[in-house]
Amino acid sequence: GTTQKPVINRESENIIKDLLENLQEDLDVIKDKLCDPVSCEKMTPELWRKYQIAKKCWGCEENLHEAGYNKIRVFDPETKKYLGASHRKCHGKGLMIKDEGKNRVIDHDHITGKFRGAMHSSCNLKLRIDPETIKIP
């Protein structure tokens, strides 16, 4: 559980200092949580069904690959000629990857662990939060 911090006394001579200290403590707690992300909740049959039938990325609302597709288009780096589709682990080293970011992934909240939906790999990476870059205005 969480503990509730004492309320700042508004009549204190050090109200600004107390407020800034409390904000820094809050930031430290938030950073600690973000540095230790919670794994995705156990995928129930219902959650798997939602993932499998999703047609749109919940982030950008563009079409997703069919579930199970998750292949990449492979191009020769010199000729730029299309060589075909391949699974990520099957394609040769040094080949250009054109649409790997469009692969469907399971997105979940890294604080609660709750499944949020199917998403493009590239959209999922855009949601990444770096705890060291959090700023308080």
Q: Strands, helices and their partners?
A:
Elements: H1 15-35, H2 45-53, E1 72-75, E2 82-86, E3 96-97, E4 104-108, E5 115-120, H3 121-126
Antiparallel strand pairs: 1-2, 1-3, 4-5
Structural overview:
Mean pLDDT is 78; it is low at 93-97. The strands form two sheets. Strands 2-1-3 form a three-stranded antiparallel beta sheet, with no helix packed on it. A two-stranded antiparallel ribbon has the order 4-5. β1 (72-75) and β2 form a beta hairpin. The protein has three helices and five strands, in the order ααβββββα. The protein starts with 14 loop residues before the first helix and ends in an 11-residue tail after the last helix. The protein has a domain at 38-128. The longest helix has 21 residues, at 15-35. The chain has helices at residues 15-35, 45-53, 121-126; strands spanning 72-75, 82-86, 96-97, 104-108, 115-120. It is of the alpha+beta class and 137 residues long.
In short:
By secondary structure, the chain is of the alpha+beta class. It is built from 3 helices and 5 strands.
Estimate the mean pLDDT confidence: 78
Taking pLDDT < 50 over at least 5 consecutive residues as the criterion, the unreliable ranges are 93-97
Strand content: 15-25%
Shape: elongated
Organism: Paraglomus brasilianum
Protein name: 9058_t:CDS:1
Offer a few descriptive terms.
137 residues, alpha+beta, 3-stranded antiparallel sheet, two-stranded antiparallel sheet, 5 strands, 9058_t:CDS:1, His-Me_finger_sf, Endonuclease_7_sf
